[in-house]
Amino acid sequence: MKKTYNQQTMKKSPNYLLKSILFISLLLNAIAVKSQSRDDINNRDILYLTSGGKVNPLQAIMDIRHYTIELEVDIANQSIAGFTEVTLNLSQKTDTILLDLIHLYKVTNIKVNGKNTVFKQSNDKIFITSTEGFESGHKVIKVEYNGIPPVAIRPPWDGGFTWKKDIAGNDWISINIQGEGGKMYFPCKDHPSDEPNEGVDMKITIPSNLVVAGPGLLMKVTTKKNKSTYYWKTNYTISNYCILFNIGKYKVAKDTYTTISGNTVPIEYYVLEVDTAQAKKVIELKKRDTKILEKYFGEYPWVKEKIGIAEVPNSGMEHQTMITFDNKFKYRNVGGQEYSDNLFHEYAHEWWANKVTNKDWAHMWIQEGIATYAEALAMLELGGELAYNTMIDGHRRGVKNRKAMVLGDEVTEEEVYSGGDIYGKGSFFMHSLRYLVGDEVFFPTLKKLATDPKYTYDNFVTTQDVENLFSTASGKDLKPFFDFYLRTTSVIDVNVKEIGFQKYQIKLNNYFMPLPFDIISDGKLEKIIIPAEGIVVKSNYAPQVDPKGFYLKKITIE
Questions:
Q1: Would you call 373 exposed, middle or buried from its count of C-beta atoms within 10 A (0-12, 13-18, 19+)?
Q2: For the chain, how far is it from start to end, CA to CA, in angstroms?
Q3: 20 to 30 A Cα–Cα from 332, which one of 33, 93, 103, 397?
Q4: Chain Cα centroid distance, residue 417
Q5: What is the pLDDT of residues 433-457, one digit of tens each?
């Protein structure tokens, strides 16, 4: 029933309705606040968080060498407590050491090289100070803390902790922190340009009926009463957002893989106990996918550790040596073989993200674009040229061009990912580059980017590095091409104009570097270089330009 108001009463008391609305609004707000869960408050507090941007001058003088993380996870209260040791080198004396850690945690004590130190928490940072100053050189900073981690809103894209139950009622916890950074649960220098060169030691204590899946190698499991501590150790440098763990009622399905270089690497699949029947197929797909990726990008990067997979309650992520995976064990058919886009894409990141790592979020197209292009190469291997072209055409059609893929330097993760084109357009750029330089240059150069120590592990890459590498290999100045595709939202404007009897001029209106194009005239296809001034083609009818779609373009015919 629709409620009405007495108009005469409202005329006599003009504030009556406003006061009533205000009262109801306040009452509803009070009820809402009272009923707000801890998760709502945590989520509200971290919505603005992102990673990267300009390096704080106090952190620019820090070189992170190692992290040791020892935490106990209280699943019942969804909290963590323990400490993190940050080992770093200072390049110069400073009165302040700055670490990142979100404000939801309470820091209870900090020691620098074993001595208690003054500190202050403010704006998701820890300011560690000394009136005498911290001398340059080696520092070990132990931060003791506890608190309730933020709950992931939309994992893995909006990160935090995910607290779930599997179908058997067992606790199942995952962590995703790519967008927000390591500061979501441990003190760190939260910038992609500085990884712990000497790796990470993680000791995670949980109820003894559960298992911790982590990066690197499982060194030891210690059980006391009803709690178990899992000690994971990495032998390689690792990105902040890959320094994490997952918890579940896991069984570990094991196998081995012999790499393209003859090294034997263990395969470990941390699969839920209720899903163990699915493990063999996932591992076999993993072996096949490894062969494809090694063909184009070189040996599996982490031969001293493992090929790891963990089943999680959200979409997969590229966590180093323990990628996460959840596709409900559904696959599609490609060339008569089963294939998972999610499993393959995240695995490709072991090369493109974990081994070849961007110096800055600004160059994220390298990681995401080439990992997405790797999927097209998988189509080529499994389904042939038709499957490859179909996927590439999908990437082309999906380009939004809302903003350039490379926005400058020192930008945040949020700025880069909000455009979306670093995936599909990044992949299509690689497709265009392949056509421009030719397969005989493209594939060896791509493999060099993935294998040369100059670009891998402890070293970082930028767009300029990729441009220089391909320019040198091809003997061409590719700067105009890279700039056009990556730093603008333009597409090549191709004009086909009839200028005489069976004569057509083909000109690029907004691109001035000579480019090769496939052109069909009178039924014959030729690959022709179009210079800045354009070319003239004789044909009985308007020629077709780039019929297979190697470029992002628009064509006008006059």
A1: buried
A2: 65
A3: 397
A4: 9
A5: 999 999 999 999 999 999 999 999 9
348 backbone φψ class: left, alpha, beta (φ>0; ψ -120 to 50): alpha
Q: What is the helix (H) or strand (E) element at residue 125, kind and residue range?
A: strand 125-134
Helices 479-486 and 421-437, interaxial angle, to 10°? 160
Q: pLDDT tens-digit profile of 478-488? A: 999 999 999 99
CA 164 to chain centre: 23
8 Å CB contact between 395 and 436: no
Strands (E), 397-548: 460-461, 492-500, 503-508, 515-521, 524-530, 535-538, 544-545
Stated length of the chain? 558
Q: Which helix (H) or strand (E) holds 294?
A: helix 279-297
The per-residue DSSP string of 32-56 comes to HHHH--HHHHHHHHHTT---BSSPP
Statement: the pTM of the whole predicted model exceeds 0.85:
yes
- Which CA distances in Å does 288 have to 282, 292, 345, 378, 455? 10, 7, 14, 10, 26
Residue 291 identity? K
pLDDT value, residue 277 = 96
Q: Is the dihedral of CA 218, 224, 228, 234 positive or negative?
A: negative
Condensed to tens digits (0 to 9), the pLDDT of residues 213-240 reads 999 999 999 999 999 999 999 999 999 9
Task: Look at residue 14 and tell me whether its pLDDT is greater than 50.
Answer: no
One-letter amino acid at 519 equals: I
- Beta-carbon contacts of residue 416 (< 8 Å; ≥ 6 apart): 361, 362, 364, 407, 422
| Helix (H) or strand (E) run with residue 334 in it | strand 332-334
Q: Beta partners for 524?
A: 521
CB 414, CB 50: distance < 8 Å: yes
Residue 462 — left, alpha, or beta (φ > 0 → left; ψ -120 to 50 → alpha)?
Answer: beta
Instruction: Report the chain's mean pLDDT, rounded to a whole number.
Output: 91
pLDDT of residue 43: 52
Q: CA 490 to CA 121: how far, in whole Å?
A: 45
Element (H, E) at 344: helix 341-348
The CATH class given to the 50-153+172-237 domain equals mainly beta
To 5 degrees, how large is the angle CA 468–CA 397–CA 512?
40
Give rounded-to-5 percent helix, strand, coil for the chain. 30, 35, 35
Domain spanning 357-486: CATH superfamily? Neutral Protease Domain 2 (1.10.390.10)
Q: Indicate the angle between helix axes 421-437 and 463-474, nearest 10 degrees.
A: 20
Any idea what DSSP says for residue 278? G
- Determine the average pLDDT of the residues in 268-281: 97
- CATH code of the region 492-557: 2.60.40.1910
Alpha carbon distance 132, 117 (integer Å): 11
> 325 and 282 in contact (C-beta within 8 Å)?
yes
Q: Which residues partner with 40 through β-bridges?
A: none
CA distance linking residue 256 with residue 258, whole number of Å: 7
